[in-house]
Specification:
By secondary structure, the protein is mostly helical. Helix content is 75%, strand content 2%. Strands 1-2 form a two-stranded antiparallel sheet.
């Protein structure tokens, strides 16, 4: 068993994406942000459930991603899911922003910055993955106290995708200005 399963998942996803490259990236970044938002909502619902367990019936949904029965299993899978999404969608989507009209130079700078962030995030995924093999009660305590490493990972990925989308929006506004000035 590898000591860095999340790093391995990242590389496998990156390799898999090479077989089906993206021609544009904005839509994948938006999909990623939507998935992260759903996961963040479920983490919030888990926190509320942990505070008031009788407020939800057994087996009921906690947000859109898990139920009261499978919340521990779902939380334990998040670091691997994040690593996979970073390799399969986030980095390739940023690289594909040229297909959305972002200049190659701007994409190259953002891609370099994103790769640095991804290295840090994937290392944190491996750390969280290892910690979650222990008692899930520790993670529940961290969720209740606002210090959940899993929540921090979700926030980091959302920030990465948001920053790339801001680059795309900035580029689109520059193109519109150029069209207006040249008209």
């Amino acid at each position: 068993m590898s000591k860095t399963p999340c790093r391995d998942a990242f590389h496998a996803a990156e390799h898999s994406r090479r077989a089906i490259p993206l021609s544009q990236g904005e839509y994948k970044l938006r999909e990623l942000r939507l998935a992260i938002a759903c996961m963040q909502n479920s983490m919030l619902a888990i926190c509320e459930y942990l505070e008031k367990p009788r407020s939800v019936r057994p087996g009921e949904l906690l947000g859109q991603c898990c139920t009261t029965d499978d919340k521990a299993y779902w939380i334990r899978g998040i670091p691997m899911w994040i690593a996979d999404q970073l390799g399969r969608n986030a980095i390739p989507a940023i690289a594909a922003l040229t297909g959305d009209g972002v200049a190659r130079g701007h994409v190259a700078v953002e891609l370099r910055r994103a790769r640095e962030d991804v290295n840090r995030i994937v290392a944190n995924c491996d750390k969280q993955h290892a910690q979650l093999k222990g008692r899930i009660a520790r993670e529940y305590d961290a969720i209740r106290s606002g210090s959940s490493g899993v929540c921090f990972l979700l926030n980091d990925v959302d920030d990465l995708a948001r920053r790339a989308l801001q680059l795309n929006a900035w580029s689109e506004s520059r193109m519109r200005e150029a069209l207006i000035l040249n008209w």
